[in-house]
Amino acid sequence: MPPTRNPLVPAALIGATVLVLAGGLGWAAGWIGPHRISGGEVANALEANGGVFPGYRRAHAKGLCFSGSFQASGAGEDLTTASSLRAGSYPVTGRFSLGGGNPLASDGRNVFHSMALVMRSPDGQEWRMAMDHTPIFPVADVPSFVGLQRATTPDPKTGKPDPALVKPFMVSHPEVPAFLAYMAKAVLPDSFANATYYSINAFRFTDAKGVTRFVRWQFEPEAPLTGLDKAKLADLPRDALFKEMIARTAKGPSRWHLKLVVANPGDVTDKATVEWTGPHRSVEAGVLTLSAVQSEEQGACRDLNFDPTILPSGIAPSDDPLLGARSKTYSTSFTRRAGEGPRTSAAGQDMLKEKGQ
Fold first, then answer.
1. In the chain, what are the helix, strand and coil shares in percent, each to the nearest 5?
2. How many helices (H) and strands (E) does the chain have?
3. How far apart are CA 69 and CA 238, in angstroms?
4. Which of 65, 85, 214, 244 is deepest in the core (most CB within 10 A)?
5. Low-confidence ranges of the chain (pLDDT < 70)
6. Bridge partners, 11 (sequence order)
7. CB pairs under 8 A, 24+ apart, for 223-229?
8. Over the stretch 41-76, which tens digit does the pLDDT of each residue have?
């Protein structure tokens, strides 16, 4: 006599499967489990701190597009199978920017000078990067980033951050005053062309043998580094750095060398606040040549999202929590400004004035 099958078992299995899928969906959406800060919350904190400027990025709002190429030496293949590091030349689209949410702010500020890139290889893969001229970042995680924005939001009554909020935040986040001290001493480049740009976060590079290493990278300029006089930043014309880059490029290209820096055992890979110091293995992977600049209205960078988690095969994000947060926040910023419609950039205003329009 064959065993009797319980008709409720299949229904129970289907029900359990539905519950698991629903639970997974709810977790992914943030409906269940510990609260996870969304890209919208980060963007809201940025807007509350720096103001709302419809049509522009919520961070690094003041920018200039550029185009050029990357000549890969092939040496990067020792670390990764990424097709854009195989020997050859690949087109790039990029953007220079300054930190802050005001697209028309003065260049005379001691803030991030940044370079973003999209490097495309013939197999259709993209490597998107968003880099700063500092090797470290002021905070290590998303709650701290949002907390920093809220603690330093200007008080409407005074126009300055409330010391009652700033002081306890700085005490509980000693990495922030350490970063501010670094910025106070570091050279502030007087051109976008002579700054070194750092990946900030660590990434996983996997080679053809399947060996994975943690890597940070940096683009080192051929132009010698010279700095702005920080005591006279207030006297700098509003768009001095952007005009200098436009004029420099009219005379010839600018170049940077891509250095891949491999982590030593014990190096911190999940905190962008911690610099890797001492000797490290470094691989020179190629040369970036910038051959043209354009205003955001004329160039190809305005409608690009420089999400640093969009990577070619052979490169993957590390366990640094800032990477996922950057991805979510850039996406939110893109959605908001796309819905608001494009506006004229500072460089675009200058170009119109020169044409007498």
1. 35, 25, 45
2. 8, 10
3. 29
4. 85
5. 1-35, 357
6. none
7. 223/191, 223/193, 223/194, 223/254, 224/194, 225/187, 225/189, 225/194, 225/195, 225/196, 226/187, 226/189, 226/190, 226/191, 226/194, 227/187, 227/188, 227/189, 227/190, 228/108, 228/188, 228/189, 228/190
8. 999 999 999 999 999 999 999 999 999 999 999 999
Among 35, 60, 113, 133, the active-site one is 60
CA angle 240, 70, 277 (to 5 degrees): 75
Q: Which two tokens stand for residue 281?
A: 């293995």
The answer to whether 205 and 237 are in contact (CB under 8 A) is: no
* 174: Cβ contacts below 8 Å, ≥ 6 apart: none
For the record, the structure tokens of 29 come out as: 């959406």
In the chain, beta strands by DSSP E = 62-72, 88-98, 113-120, 126-132, 197-198, 203-206, 212-221, 254-262, 282-294, 315-317
Query: Rg of the chain's alpha carbons, rounded to an integer?
Result: 23
Scan for tokens 């010698």, then name that residue.
Answer: 224
Residue 314: name the closest of 103, 72, 137, 134 by CA. 72
Contact in structure between 59 and 341 (CB atoms under 8 Å): no
- As given in the structure block, the two tokens for residue 12 are 């129970």
Give the residue carrying structure tokens 């539905």: 18
User: DSSP labels for 128-160?
Assistant: EEEEESSSS-S-SSHHHHHHHHHHTSBPTTTSS
DSSP 98-114: ESSS-TT--S-S---EE
Q: Residue 105, class by beta-carbon neighbours within 10 Å (0-12 exposed, 13-18 middle, 19+ buried)?
A: buried
Confirm whether 60 is a catalytic residue: yes
Quickly list DSSP for 283-320.
Answer: EEEEEEEEEEEE-TTTSSSTT----TT---TTEEE-S-
Tokens of 207: 């080679």
Cα–Cα nearest to 60, from 350, 351, 346: 346
d(CA 285, CA 217) in angstroms, rounded, equals 10
Give the relative orientation of helices 321-340 and 39-50 as an angle to the nearest 10 degrees. 70
CA-CA distance, 112 to 53, in Å (whole number)?
A: 19
